[in-house]
Amino acid sequence: MPESRFTAACVQMRSGRNPEANRDAAVAGVREAAGRGAAFVQTPEMTSLVERSRERLFAEVTTEAQDRTLAAVREVARETGVVVQIGSIAVRSGDKIANRAYLIGSDGDVVASYDKLHLFDVDLPSGERWRESATYTGGACAVVAPTPWAMLGLTICYDIRFPGLYRALAEAGAEILTAPACFTRQTGEAHWHVLQRARAIETGSFVISAAQGGLHEDGRETFGHSVIVDPWGRVLADAGGSEPCVILAEIDVAQVADARARIPSLQHGRPFTVERVGPKIQAAQ
Question: Has the keyword Manganese been applied to this entry (predicted)?
Answer without folding.
Answer: no
